[in-house]
Amino acid sequence: MTHTYDLTTAIGQVRRILGKLETVSTTALFTDEEITQELTEQGDVVKLAAANLLDIKASYISEKKKSTTIGKYSINGPAMAADLRKHAEMLRQEVENGTSGTAFDVATLDEECEY
After folding, report:
1. Is residue 3 part of a domain?
2. Is residue 108 in some structural domain?
3. pTM of the full structure
4. Distance of alpha carbon 107 from its chain centroid, rounded?
5. Which H/E stretch holds residue 34?
């Protein structure tokens, strides 16, 4: 069960979309093998594979994580799951519409500007 993060590969690109779910800990949410399987099932379309994996995570959160408050901190499992499903649907819409959904598509770099 491997866990790699190389943005030049489809696996790394899926992990980037999954964001902090995948990159913070040394234990990956999904193994490379699971991501590869999802990529295969989705015709190697990175965003569709990531969308399905987000749905899997959302289902897990819905089943296991309820709303909890500990001191001044609270976790709202159902809201987290809803947000993951919303992100998954956005990715599917981007694929369907042929758009990337990033602001970088229209951004330009002003090379004379001092940042």
Report:
1. no
2. no
3. 0.75
4. 23
5. helix 32-41
Q: What is the pLDDT of residues 61-112, one digit of tens each?
A: 888 777 778 888 877 888 889 999 999 999 999 999 987 654 444 444 445 5
Q: How far apart are CA 91 and CA 101, in angstroms?
A: 8
Give the tokens for residue 96. Answer: 């369907």
The token duo for 56 is 């899997």
| DSSP reduced 3-state for 59 | helix
Angstrom CA distances, 53 to 82, 84, 90, stand at 14, 10, 13
Give every CB contact of residue 23 below 8 A, 6+ residues apart in sequence.
5, 15, 16
- Specify the number of domains making up the chain: 1
Per DSSP, which regions of 1-115 are E strands? Answer: 68-70, 73-75
In a domain, residue 112? The reply is no
44 Cβ contact list (under 8 Å, min separation 6): 10
Buried b (16+ CB within 10 A) or exposed e, 74-92: eeebeebbeebbebbeebb
4 domain residue, yes or no: no
